[in-house]
## 1
Amino acid sequence: MARNIFGEQPDKVEIVLHGSFASTGRGHGTDRALVAGLLGWAPDDTRLPQSLKTAAELGMQVEFSSADLGEVHPNTALLRLEKGKNKIEILGSSIGGGKILITKINDIQVELSGSYATLIVAHRDRPGGVASVTSIVADHKVNISAMRVSRQSRGARMMMIIEMDQLPPEGIVPEILRCQSVEHALLLKPITALGGDKIGQNNQH
């Protein structure tokens, strides 16, 4: 899911392993699984054992380290992804049963499971900003199952995580980007539907 959020294959990757991931993760193939995801491979892809080699062949620079990331799930990793001017920091955990949870994107707290069709929208904190986005979702007759809005401070950048019962058309992203306060929008299909491949859009306003 980190690659989907980033929007493209990164050139430079720093992966910080925490807790159980730090002590046993690399021996249990966590390193290869994380890199396979960044390559856009499905969890059951037969090429997974070769992910580190493939990443190197594609010019992806990958660096692993271990650190105490604080009060987070034991199976947590911090990913710093870069490609040119595009940079992002994502904190995510493997919470069991094949499920993952993204809890932070850059400095903004989120809760993203990947179980639903999801819109990630970054926008400036302005009156009516949230309503302008949700009204577009409603216009497409798509039901919102959950929505979380986070901001760093009043008037700063905000992030909306909108989980939906149905998948809206991909054309919804350009519509949302036309909203005055929106800076960035991305549509993700459920992980169960896409097997790790990127199919949404990643646009900069």
## 2
Amino acid sequence: MIRFFQKTNIVVVYLLFLALVLIPNFLVLFFPNIFENPVISMFEDVSEGALFVMSVIVAPIFETLIFQTAIIFIIQFAIQNKLKRFWLSLIVSSLLFALNHIYSIAYFFFGIYVGGLFVIAYYVAQKRKVSATLFVIAIHMMNNLIAFFV
């Protein structure tokens, strides 16, 4: 699997991660009550444009910097064993990402899944010598863009 990510065109890798991240967004179409997000009602008075900028541009940047870049950097600095730091990064980052999206139990598990994919994407980009932060931000932005219109 690692060899696939190393040999495959980075655009294909990006599209693969995007497809995996989008799976929960399509579940929302079939189970809207389970994935109801009460935070959206807080922004009823906010213009569509401001909501778009916040959810599609600002949130992915800040969340990636906090929940992937900072956490992974600290863990990589503190732990020498590559396998241990990968698993610790995966667990800590995805749990904290999920706790930030705990609108419901379904969203919490959605957050663990997506947060975990973001960590894996981060490590794949790092291995490929591509900006891991920008790679994850791009996936996160596209996910939020599609979710914004769904």
## 3
Amino acid sequence: MTRHFAKRATATALILALAACGGGGSGGGAGIGGSGYKSSGTITEFGSIFVNGVEFQTTGSVFEIEDSPGAQSDLRIGMRVVVEGSVDANGTTGVATRVRFEDQLEGPIPSASTVSTDADGETKSFTILGVPVTVSGVDTTFVGTTFATIAPGAVLQISGFFDASGLLHATAVVNKSAFTPNATVVEAKGTITSLAATTLALRVGNATLDVDFTSADLSRVPGGLATGQLVEVKGTLAADTATTIASTAIKLEDDSFNEGAQAELEGIITSFGSPSSFAVDGQQVNASAAARTPANLTLRAGIKVEVEGSITNGVLQATAVKLREGSLRVHATASNVNTSANTFDLLVAGQAVTVTANTSTEMEDKTSSSNLSLATLGNVNGR
């Protein structure tokens, strides 16, 4: 058995994490090509940029980071992006004309709150702006902070996916500057559920945020605010425990796919009617004619999938639905180290598992493929 590890390492001697298996390109045969193609998902590798199993060439691509011009170097594995461009007939390579990143939430963990850790020590939970967030020591990428050091008072930028309960599963966490009352910028994207002259209620996941837009720039909301709109709110808080955002700017969001567009979407099944009719990250899917990977995949609310197909009448007509696998952790001694091939074996339940490190693998505790030995004890995170 061979495992190709593509994300990061964390632990006493070695942790390797797979970025995102369970996918592997855009179907087969003719693949997805031409104009009107959009892929929404997390970054799993660099070199070029890998999203939803497709390696996109980015020479000449336009990068947009939080509404501002950016570069590929601004991005990290685990960040959720939207890629526009085309995919070659092989279904595994393509060209990105535009790559856009926006977080799902940004703000402080209230200083008066707690950060809880599960019994296994694998996940932590906390709230930001009243929205529940969970991070994983295996699946979440951390920038400027670590799983171990996340604590109340930290200001974090969260990229990830909401589940049906409104819990935000973080795939990337970026530490921001320390909180300053009435100055630190906070951000939230959600749906307006009620509207008054200068205030509104914003539903983010299943949480409701109060927003005062008395002084907000509304130039990016053509026609004015209305209930039911999907918007991004930026603003400040009087304290890190405050419950009202004093908005400085609101912009209209449109996360939908264009009619007739070829689409690939990674996300959690947020509502489930049947195996052929469900929603992923709020996007309705018709999977009645979709091939499933694995073939015995049982669909249900709460699992993460990758869906590909085309948009008809606002519904993603799926040709393929793939399970996006979770992670595993293995604690074992390395053997048969091959520094030339960057491989080594671990004995798991009596079976040798070959681990392959690549250019996206990060080593910690001064471990590298060149100094692994038979005595190296490794905690291996993978899929």
